[in-house]
Specification:
The chain has helices at about 1-10, 20-30, 40-75, 85-95, 105-115, 125-140, 180-190, 220-235, 245-250, and strands at about 170-175, 195, 205-210, 240. The two termini are about 35 Å apart. The protein contains nine helices and four strands; from the N terminus they run H-H-H-H-H-H-E-H-E-E-H-E-H. By secondary structure, it is an alpha/beta fold.
Length: about 250
Amino acid sequence: MLFLDAWLKSQQYLADHDDVVAILQQVGDILQDGVITPEELAGMQSAIEALNGEKAGDAAVGMGRINELIGFLTGVASDGVLNDQEVDALASWLNRNETIRGKWPASVIVNRLNSVLEDGIITEEERHDLMVTVNQVTGNDNSVPDVSYESSTEVWEDEVDDIKVAGSMFCLTGEFVSGDRNSVDTNLRLRGAETSPNVNKNVDYLVIGTLASRDWLYTAHGRKIEKAQLLKRKGVNINCITERTLLRLLG
């Protein structure tokens, strides 16, 4: 329920979609008191099943095409190299599947491809930018060899322009690229921060490590994120940020 709520809010292009607005409202009502009852879950399931029933035909086909595109992009990103043949094949696939060109993530790739192919010449900079887009969509990052990134955790991040380190309480979760969790903890303490092993109402920042396994939602990693979201709904001023944001704002 929490993930559905955060994901829907993060998809700005769906903000005016009547079905999405209705589901988001229902999710908000369910989560408002911090308790999810079996009756509320059953009501949400019924609403989603009813929506799926209405959209079943075209939606099933569209989802199959989206999954096919994700598989295509994952294959393209696997070796960290994007050659002209792959670019042409990607463009041809999108042209053959016009029905999903306006849907995410196809729409993102289409916009980037249009920019790249506009003058008929693919520069190294354009090739790099397109590869970055593909990596973002698939959750891969080839800048660090043999490391798999889970971009799904970034949906929880709050927008912050600055971080007050000295005097603030930090809680760390997940695995970090910039060092093990102890070294990140020590770095924060040297800057005057306090750290907590658990999420509570005194925590100012929950920092989510860049590395995550595909089952992160069912681990202590996910439980900390979940608790932070529940505290936020109860009015506690706690910010969820990623390791990348922390490093960027710390300079």
